[in-house]
Write a structure and sequence with these properties.
417 residues; mainly alpha; 4 strands
Length: 417
């Protein structure tokens, strides 16, 4: 295969991925229904429903524009010889392969950050502001960006240096890289709630009262080892609501957004948390971790093949990207561009599994509460407060949604009664 043919195939694949998302977005907009579904009449009203549809249209336009710009800039950078130029620039500092690799990938990271920053600003301070969701101040936004950069440097640079060293120095490096990545991912999952999340949000222990008592009753009923309930100041950034739990083994912690507590009744909140407990009891988290570990192994194995300096395919690939010398740091970037179609297939499969898990967790919550009513009411309120699209097109759901449409969840819950 010649570099020209390989270039054409990659561009076609990237275009088809964009086109698929574009078609799904258009179908979802076409699928917007003028009348409010009767299942939501007790929580929604016509004004809020119209606002939700306007929010969906605005979000779709933003998504289309940002994806067009991102793809166009990627292709322009590629065809202008940007990867080769950046590699030459990184090598001009005269450092070893570690220094050169870190400069190259760090440069790309900063370029991507500069491209994405205007979109992040627009999304936060224009789109979300227009529909009443944004609570982020400019000071908080800037602080988040700085903290994110510092964390990326503190965690990313040592990790990337280790991966570069492994592939440069150790036989069967992909195995060791896989093990290191898996251990680090599990470690971050465990440490993030205690060390990272508090850098961005304030977590306050829930005060004694009816809600705390009922949550602990539910945890005891489900044999769920709950050790802590916190209220997170989600309203610091957004009016949207959510809840999540963290921890391993016998140290489970639940965090509720303050925006969620303000809008839901005690039975509804207990229903939401029973749903989260359902994920734990059904071992959904373990399943996702195992699948993620397997996916990481596949990625590193393929990465080793793509960056093999003795491979004819690697030489053709680097030529197609206008890079003279085969190296791991450039190969990492090229690989993840190549991997996009495979990644999309994997994400579709993971989303399919996730939607299945959501139905199972819903069913578990209805079972332990001995009624689906409370969770149904909570889901309808959440959909109204978050201006959710009640009628997404099946293709959009198939491609992107980790949760089933609310209407499908309500029907499934009603059928379980």
């Amino acid at each position: 295969m010649t570099p020209t043919i390989l270039t054409a195939l990659i561009v076609i694949a990237l275009y088809l991925l964009w086109k698929l998302d574009f078609v799904a977005t258009l179908l979802t907009l076409k699928n917007l229904k003028p009348g409010l579904p009767e299942e939501f009449a007790d929580v929604w009203d016509e004004e809020k429903y119209a606002k939700a549809q306007a929010y969906e249209r605005a979000g779709a336009k933003f998504s289309i524009v940002s994806s067009v710009v991102s793809l166009s800039l990627l292709l322009a950078f590629w065809f202008a010889g940007g990867f080769g130029w950046l590699d030459d620039w990184a090598r001009s500092f005269g450092g070893n392969y570690l220094v050169t690799g870190l400069i190259f990938i760090g440069g790309l990271f900063l370029l991507n950050l500069l491209v994405q920053l205007p979109f992040d600003i627009y999304h936060t301070f224009v789109l979300e502001e227009k529909f009443g969701f944004n609570k982020t101040t400019p000071a908080t936004f800037i602080s988040d960006q700085i903290k994110g950069l510092v964390l990326a440097a503190l965690l990313g640079i040592p990790f990337l240096a280790l991966i570069l060293w492994l592939f440069h120095s150790v036989p069967h490096a992909w195995v060791y890289a896989w093990v290191v990545t898996t251990v680090l991912s599990l470690l971050l999952t465990f440490l993030a709630p205690a060390l990272i999340l508090p850098l961005f949000n304030k977590f306050t222990p829930m005060e004694d009262g009816e809600l705390k008592t009922e949550i602990y009753k539910m945890a005891e009923k489900c044999d769920f080892p709950l050790t802590e309930i916190s209220i997170m100041d989600g309203s610091k950034r957004s009016a949207k609501a959510n809840a999540f739990f963290t921890g391993f083994g016998k140290t489970k912690k639940i965090a509720l957004y303050d925006t969620l507590v303000e809008k839901q009744t005690t039975p509804e909140l207990v229903g939401v948390l029973a749903h989260e407990i359902g994920h734990f009891k059904k071992k959904h988290i373990v399943q996702r971790i195992v699948l993620s570990i397997v996916q990481t192994a596949i990625i590193f194995f393929l990465l080793g093949l793509v960056t093999n300096p003795n491979s004819d395919f690697a030489r053709t690939l680097f030529t197609a990207f206008k890079v003279d010398e085969i190296s791991l740091h450039v190969g990492l970037v090229i690989f993840f561009i190549l991997f996009k179609p495979v990644s999309r297939l994997i994400s579709i499969g993971m989303s399919l599994l996730s939607r299945k898990h959501e139905f199972e967790a819903d069913h578990y919550a209805a079972m332990v509460q001995e009624t689906p009513t409370h969770l149904m009411s909570a889901l309808k309120k959440l959909s109204a407060e978050n201006l959710s699209n009640l009628t997404p097109h099946p293709l959009e759901v198939f491609l992107h949604h980790s949760h089933p449409p609310v209407l499908e969840r309500l029907k499934a819950l009603k059928a379980s009664a």
